Every structure is written in C-alpha cells, then in structure tokens.
Amino acid sequence: MTTTIRAPKHTITALVQDKPGVLNRVSSMFRRRGFNIVSLAVGHSEIPGLSRMTFVVEGDDAIVEQVTKHLHKLIDVIKVADISQDNVVSRELALIRVNSNAHTRSEIMQIVDIFRANIVDVAPESVVIEVTGDEEKVDSLTNLLRSFGVAEVMRTGTIAMSRGTGAGGPAPSNSSKVRLEGGV
Amino acid sequence: MKLTGGQIVCESLIREGVDVLFGLPGGAILPLYQTLPEYPQLRHILVRHEQGAAHAADGYARVTGRPGVAWATSGPGATNLITGIATAQMDSVPMVIITGQVSRAAIGSDAFQETDTTGITLPITKHNYLVMHASEIAQAIKEAFHIASTGRPGPVLVDIPKDVFEEEAEFEYPETVDLPGYKPTVEGHSAQIKRAAKLIDQSKRPVILAGHGVIFSGAFDELKELAEKAQIPVITTLLGISSFPDNHVLCVGMPGMHGMAYASLAIEEADLLIALGMRFDDRITGRASAFALGARKIHVDIDPSEIGKNVKVDVPIVGDIKRVLLKLNKYVEPATHLDWVQHIEQLKKDHPSMNIRDTDKLLPQFIIRELSNATKGSAIVVTGVGQHQMWAAQHYMFTEPRSFVTSGGSGAMGYEVPGAMGAQVGRPDKVVWSIAGDGGFQMTMAELATLVENKIPVKFAIMNNGFLGMVRQWQEFFYDRSYVATNYTANPDFVKLADAFGMLGIRVTDKTQVRSAIEKAMEYDGPALIDFVVEQEENVYPMIPAGQTIHELIEEPAPEKVRR
What we know:
The complex is a heterodimer. Chain A is of the alpha+beta class. Chain A is about 25% helix and about 40% strand. Chain A has 4 helices and 10 strands. In chain A, strands 2-3-1-4-10 form a 5-stranded antiparallel beta sheet, with helices on one face. In chain A, strands 5, 6, 7, 8 and 9 form a 5-stranded antiparallel beta sheet that branches. Chain B is α/β, with parallel strands linked by helices. Helix content of chain B is about 35%, strand content about 15%. In chain B, strands 3-2-4-5-7-6 form a 6-stranded parallel beta sheet, with helices on both faces. In chain B, strand 19 (about 505-510), helix 22 and strand 20 (about 530-535) form a beta-alpha-beta unit. The interface of A and B includes residues 16, 32, 70, 73 and 74 of A.
C-alpha cells in the first residue's frame, strides 16, 4: 500500500436511463470537468429501463458536491446519491491469474481459503482466483499473491448499497449525504 | 395522419410557435428542405455559412427570449455550427438545432459527409438526440424545446438521418414530456429566501450583482423593485447589461476585468453581495480566492451546479430569479443605505472610468457615446468580442431590457454579423446596431449577402483599427509591445465592400463626421455600414489583469503622460 496522502474517496450512485450513449454522457462530463474516477460500475437496476451506476471518486467535499450536481444536470440521470457517509455494503469482484506449479499450488490454495476466495480455473502453469469483497480486501489478496507472479488482474469496480434500517446497522442519516431529484 | 419525417419536423416546429429559422441545405437534410414549400408559415433564411445560422438563431433568442432555430446538413454543415452552439451553451441561450445525418444503414461506415454529430456536440449542448425512427421525431422535438427553454436555458440538438426524413409515420404532437431526470427547481426554498431577506436587512453595504439569469427570467421589474425598496446599488455583469437601466440612479455598471473601477471597488467594500443569475466568472472575480472577502454572499441561480462552483456562498437559493424575487421583495424591509450610496457616488468621482479624454482623434469610446446619444439608448446593440465589445458595454447607455447582445462566455469573434442578423429578425421593430471589430467582422461578413437578400436592415459600426485590438493591448501591457500577428495591414476597403454587397457604406475618419454618418445610416432603408477608421493603439481602461485583484487595477494614465 502506498503511504502518500490521497484525496478522500467518495462513493456515489446514480440511477440513469438505460439509453444508448448514457455512459458516454456521464464519462464525458467527468473528463471535461476534470473529475477523477477511481472506479465505475454499471448494471441494470430493479426498475426496467433504468440502470444504476456506482462511482468511486477522489476529491474533497467541494469537488464531490460538484460531481453530484453535474451528474444530476445530465438529462438522462434521474437520481444521484453520495452514500460515502452512510453505512454501506460495498463489494467488488476480481479475477486474478497467478503463476503456479506443483510446488506453489498448495500455498496459493491456503491463501485463497483465508480470503474466502475461490479457484475457478487450474492449468499446469497458473490458476485463476475469483475474489469478492471490498476494495481493500481485493488489494490485500492481490498484494499477497504478487510473490508467486500475478499474470493478469481483472476487477469490476466497486458497487455499493446502503444498509437497511433493521438490525443490520444504523439508519442512514439525512444530513450526511446529498440526494438530488430533478435538476437543470 | 401519416406524414413523412420531414413533414413531422415542420409540423412540430409550427406547434412550438416557430416562425423563422436559419439554415443551409445539403444532401442529408434535403428531404426536409423539399417539404418546406408546404409550410409557408415557416420563414427560412438561407445563410452563407452555417456558423451564421447558429449565431443568428442565438441572437434571435437573446432579444425575444424564445428559442432560436437553426438547421444544417450532416458532416461539414454540422461542424460549421459548432462555434455557434458552444456560444449558446456558454451563455445559456435557448436554441433548437436540427442536423441531417447520413442514412441509418450508413451510420458508422465513414460515409460521405458523415460526422458523429451527437458525439461532437455532447459537451456543448444542454442535451442532444439522434432520432432513428420517424415515429420518434415529434417527441424528440417536443422535448428539445422544453429542455432548451426551461430551467437554465441552452442549446438542444436533434440529429436526424436522411432516410428518417423520408420515412412515414403517424403524426400526433405530444401534449406533454416525460423526463423523470429533468425537473428544474423554479420556486426558491422559502426558509432560504427568508434568511436572505434577513441578511439584506442587516447589511450596511449591500450590492446586487445582476446577470444573464435576470434577463432570461424576465425579472426586470422585480429587480428594480428590490433595488429601490432597500436602496441597493446594482452592478450588472457583461451579460446582465440591460437587465437594469443604465440611467437609473442606483446603476453602478459592469465590474471586473474591464469594468468600471468603482463597480469593482464597491464589490470589494461591500458587506453583502446579492448575486442574481450570474456565475462568478473569472472575468468578474479575478483571483476567486481573493474576491469580495468582506462580503457575505447570497446566490440565486436556477442551476444548482453554479452554486459553490467558483465562490463559496452563505445563502444559496436555487430557483427562477423572478419567482424568487417576487417572494424576497415581500420580506425585505425598506431601507435607504444613504451613506453607502453616497460613498459609491464618491467612488465614481474618484475613479471616473467613464470619462473620455478630450482629443481631436477619432476614439471608439466617443463613437459609441455618440451612437448611444443618437439612438437615445434604445437601440439593440450587438457586438463581437474584444476592445469594441468592452467599449460598447461601458459607453452605451442601455435603457431597455434585452437590448445588449454579445458573446460573453465563449468570446466568439465574428458573432457581430450573424448575431445582429438574428436580433433584427427577432425584433424587426427595433433599430439594431452591430458594433463590430475589423477582425471579427471579416470572420463572418459573408452574411452581409444574407442581410441584403432578406432586407434585414442591420446597421454596422466597424471600429476599424487595423489590429486584433484586445490581443494587441495584451501584447502592449504584458509582452513589451511585441505585436506578433495582430496587425492587419491589408484590410479590404469596407465601403467598397458594402457597395459590392449592395448596401450603404460610409467612411468616417474625423470626429466631426460621426453623428451625421450615424444619422445617415439610420435614415437609409436597408443594411448599412460605417467604417470608422479609429485610433489604432487605443486601450481599454480600466483593466484588472487576468487572475489579479482590484489592487492591481490599471486606470487610464493622465493625458499628459499618454504617449501618442
């Protein structure tokens, strides 16, 4: 892990129209305003015709406020929420191809077990590991595997959801997040 | 009723109240053009270059408040519109642009005159559409007009493939739009408005900063009411000029880089800024981190993303200026702010930014002052970008709303010719003066033919100094008078040029000829041009260099020190 001080990371979700070019509109806005995306994940939402995007962005509060406002300004974006301050569940899926042979395979399998990851493909010279977790967990596993030789890494980017209001965690506080509906 | 895509476009435009549009045909948009004879109520003005069509639609929109319409063919037709679309986007001007596209089957194949128009215009439009079926045209146009003209206005582009213009579909114009992601906040938050009123009541040295939003909201009376009720001096941004009469006793004028020194000083000394429909542009703030540090700030804007973008504010209010002021004016207590108003009067005396020095030379400032007097401040004035634009902003005394038309945010030279054309088409009842620079004028002067052809009687005052004057001024101030690539040594004879286009041309080289030339141009029944051969190296004062503060203000040197 690097020790340099970085701008804080924020998790923002957006409900968007599932139309051609929407991803382009969103990414173009980030590019032209100079906002820094750490990761971006898109998929269908629970509502037909609408997709949900999860962004992890770097920046101070003022920048993140601008990100949410400018996202919201896009006509095809319906709802934006900065859920960074919420109690959230965030997950990422990664596939990691690691060099392996008869000598190293069992050690790799032990590490995989500790991380509750899975080996999904075995070849004479390598294995493919599937891991799910928050960004830090995926980072730690990847770092541990480096000594064996990491040949390829594929990550989906973070998706995130606020926890429910039941026993799972505290109710999301309204003061700590930006929720916008409608816009210009 | 089954109609072709082209007919659906025309029917839709008519239902949106469009009566005039600016364009130039080409292959991909031809099926639309060929339906035009069926719709005589749509007046089409054939331009000489598509940039002219876009700027004209923009000028039309700025003087009428209604969306301007321009169209062009695919590829180069669409790309020629770009400067005009970007200009409208920067200044929040409502426009609907229709472009032809290559046929559906050819899209993506690098076909003849194919350009990714929606891709190119994505960052410079409020929204855009690629319509792939004739049955979707009416909905797209309905939405385009709705989006262009509501909230923070802006240009919306609708790209339509050639074969979609030819395809037939049932036509029924939609009554409503369904845009779940687009619901502008119009009414300001009541509690915030009350907080703003309280700040105003408590303030000793308030100023209003009125921007383009006041004009698009049509909040002229409401602004005047607020200013008069609490006796608050009004500063107008470049695009806010004509939102408040220049001859009003509370009008302080324009601040910023080339604004009145006393306006910038008033901001510096104020304890409260009431910013209405303006966006704290860098030309106003200079170094934003040092801007108006002693003042609390109320910011009213319909676009939430403008609030807190450049300057931190104390009371943000998202909403339409007119609606917000209607409420705010009720809460604000009457006040006099006598000391403050008198102090600003003193600043005006100490920093006479509006003075024109006494000389026999032909100064652009003098010409604009004469123009202002001759038209009693009631003409529509359109400008290009540069020195002449700043002098027009400074020295013309605007008395009527929506009468100053200029490319502010994008600073597009060449706006002065087609922009004036659109303004005159939108307001045929008004005298339209285009105050032009010799540089910008030559960028778009092909549209003079359009003016003559369509009997559009714009009057041009070219401030001909043979230089790209503002760039030259920067070279003089900041690059030790090294005039690289700013001197036009072989400008055309603009009077002969006017003659060649079939319009009146007058040359003025002496101060004494100014007024009579202006009168003559206005008496002439048709477009006219005056070539004012002005002092070459005149500078715009005052000036706050880019990124600096009021403390680095450069005022005009005393006459004896001026090297001439």
